[in-house]
Amino acid sequence: MRIVIIGSGYVGLVSGACFADFGHDVICVDKDQGKIDRLNAGKIPIFEPGLDELVATNMAAGRLVFTTNLKAHMEGAEVAFLAVGTPSRRGDGHADLTYVYQAAKEVAEAATGPLVIATKSTVPVGTGDEVERICKAARPELALLVASNPEFLREGAAIEDFKRPDRIVIGANDQQARDAMAEVYRPLYLNQPPLLFTSRRTSELIKYAANAFLATKITFINEMADLCENVGANVQEVARGIGLDNRIGTKFLHAGPGYGGSCFPKDTLALIKTAQDFEAPTRLVEAVAAVNDQRKRAMARKVIAACGGSVRGKTIAVLGLTFKPNTDDMREAPSLSIITALQDAGAAVRGFDPEGMEQARDMLQGVTLCTSAYDCITGADALVIVTEWNEFRALDMRRIKSLLKAPVVVDLRNIYRPEDMARHGFTYVSVGRPPISG
Predict the structure, then answer these.
(1) Quick check: is 228 catalytic?
(2) Which of 13, 176, 241, 394 lies at a C-alpha separation of 20 to 30 Å from 52?
(3) Catalytic residue among 18, 135, 263, 376
């Protein structure tokens, strides 16, 4: 099939590369000429394991093309995906659909024949109805069918998620659109992924509901971690104890500094606003969003307490700046709030991240960015682990102790065992586990 993807950001680029790897002819369109030039030169603008190789292979095979010229590549297209951004709208928190509607209009105007226009962008319920209206107004003479096909990609594991998905959700109100979308995903039939066909509005809500539910699990275990600290219990054992119940499951039950990234904060807020508009408020999701916001700065207070109640005049080393490992994404990362709070309390902050340094230069003010984990730790009064990158899981503790001014480690991801840290002589503070001093 010939597929056009509007938007070459995270979702569009991963989707385009994977569709091309399935054997489809894929045209990725973006208005950012600089980004397209870099992609055509083999430079990937985001960090996603395996993506650079996948893009290079399919570009060399002629199945993947990057361009700014939509009209020149629409001939013969059967499906066009909208994969543009839907950021929170400034002022009210609703999803900003400006780019989605503009892309829909441009695709409709450029279409040369019947076409399925599928929305991959995360959009509120009813967006597909407006996209359909826009398309019909632009080209009433053409059969332009609108579908919803939300993505469920985890940053850091997006290619695996795309090629071996838990499910593929397709929302369409007519059989012709369903058939076309089923053909798009036909190469996956050997993996037998469940194709879930729903109405368009149901599909749109599934994406928001899924992210809100996962955000709720994260927030729930974080609150249990706080309770564990106060009663002397171990949150990791609590999580395992409840996670072995198949009705609950073990995933997303890892206590930490709160969720971040490009999806959960934005999508929970958009769901809250949509629910309010339809007079069906989601009180639970509202509480989740509020608790998560408060938690990030609470982690800074945990660091301050570990440092004896004050960090004024002290230097704090922060390892891990991105919101999760295996990505360079720092949007809504807990590190942003934690570092700001530490600076507000008078601390000097040093930071290091394996992939997020370029973004950190733009997003962090007054932070000394270092070249390695050990460089970051050198001369600091305390070490704080914020993101659980693999390279932080086996640090040389003897070396760290020699580099720190004081043997204080605050592990916000629980990647070390308290008894091991005590044996090395550290004052070790983690999340939801009793503190141990060496």
Answers:
(1) no
(2) 394
(3) 263
